[in-house]
Structures are given as C-alpha cells and as structure tokens.
Amino acid sequence: MTHKDICNNEQLTLYHYKEMTASECYVLEQHLSECATCSASLDELRASLSAVPHPRVILSAAQKLEFSARVTERTRQGVGSRLLGLKTVLAVGTVLALMLLMLRPIDHPVKTVPAAVALAELEVLEEFEMLKEFDLLQDLDLLQDLG
Fold first, then answer.
1. pTM to 2 decimals?
2. Mind listing the pLDDT tens digit for each residue in 108-122?
3. Which string of DSSP letters, residue by residue, matches the chain?
4. Residue-number span of the structural domain to which 44 is assigned
C-alpha cells in the first residue's frame, strides 16, 4: 500500500471513531509510529473533533416508554401500508408485463400481391360497400312505409 492509501483524512477519521477492522488499525498504527506528519495530522483531527460539542439527550423512564409506544404504533401502521404498497406495485407490474406481451409485434411474413389482383379485390370491396348502402336504403323505405 502507498502512503496515500494508508494515511489520509478519511482513514484517520475512521481510526478516530474506531470504525476500522483490526488489521486496518494495525497497518495504520504501524504507519503512524514511523510517520511524524501523519501522527501530527491525527492529533489535529482529534483536536478539531473534540471541539465539536456532542449533545446528550437524557430521557426519563416515562419518556422512553412513550417513545417506544409511538415507534411500535407507527411500525404497525407502516407494515400494513407497505404491504398494500407492495401489492399495488406487484399488480401494476403484472399488468404492464401482460400489456407488453400483448403489444409486442408478431412476425408474420408479408405477402406481396400483384397489382392486378389488388385492384380486383378493391373493386369487389367497393361493390360490397354499395350493397350495404343498398340494404340500408331498403330498410329506410320499409320504415317510411310503416310510418
């Protein structure tokens, strides 16, 4: 490891708060015993951190019980709403997945039709439309006769 890996402000802060593994502490302590610069940096860091006030909250037994009851109640309420939220998310996800499956394109081969055949089919379709209109006119005539 290099000097920068072993000894930097982050490592010194972790060391100060005892947030390092035993092996990391050992390596850093070995380095600090040999490096006056890093030892001085640790001393400065400790002085700075000790100047920061550490507020202490002192609660009575009744306040602790009240706080515990409130946390328990909110936890009970939160579990139900989280389960409902999870069920909703799962339901929406399922619906979206099904919609995506239904909307995905299906690969069908596209047939090419000669122009003459396409025109003939178009004429048949137009005649069919005319027959539907003729049937509608006949139905209107019958209604007028009844009325």
1. 0.37
2. 666 676 777 677 777
3. --HHHHSSHHHHHHHHTT-S-HHHHHHHHHHHHH-HHHHHHHHHHHHHHHHS--------HHHHHHHHHHHHHHHHHHHHHHHHHHHHHHHHHHHHHHHHHHHSPP--PPPP--HHHHHHHHHHHHHHHHHHHHHHHHHHHHHHHH-
4. 3-51
